[in-house]
Amino acid sequence: MVLPPRLFQFLHHGAQGLLVTVGPDGWPHVAFSWIGSPEPARMRVIADEGSTTLANLMANAIAAAQVIGPDNLLYLVKGVASLPHGERKMPDGLRVVLAELAVREVKDQSWSPVEVAPLRYLWREPHMIEVERAVFRILTT
């Protein structure tokens, strides 16, 4: 399965999103994440080193990403995660793990009577904009 062209085009530049993993108790765990797509058949997501999200991905590779973008772009992408890239150190010292998500299902959740506002971070520390740009380069190449 591949991402629809509109979703791929949006994620090919990197975006913020919600990453849903399955905890040891069987319940969903939701975390803000950075999401990108180097090609239509796969997505990449970031999990912080030592986080519940990373522990969940290591124990159970089932994951989903909620993508909310401009012009009523609203998708849920389900897939199976792998961790082929290991840990990465970001410019600010943040340690993250890059996970690949093999796309298994894509659902367009937009609904014409309503328009969603894009999910985006409002950085309080200006240097985080550069960190985010570095993360997007990693996710999309």
Q: What can you see in these coordinates?
A:
With 141 residues, this protein is an alpha+beta fold. The chain has one domain: Pnp Oxidase, Chain A, CATH 2.30.110. Helix content is 21%, strand content 44%. It has three helices and seven strands. It has a six-stranded antiparallel barrel. The radius of gyration is 14 Å and the shape is globular.
Summarize the structure.
The protein is about 20% helix and about 45% strand.
CATH class: Mainly Beta
- Main beta-sheet annotation: 6 strands, antiparallel, barrel
* Total count of helical runs of at least 4 residues: 3
Give the % helix. 10-25%
Provide the CATH topology: Pnp Oxidase, Chain A
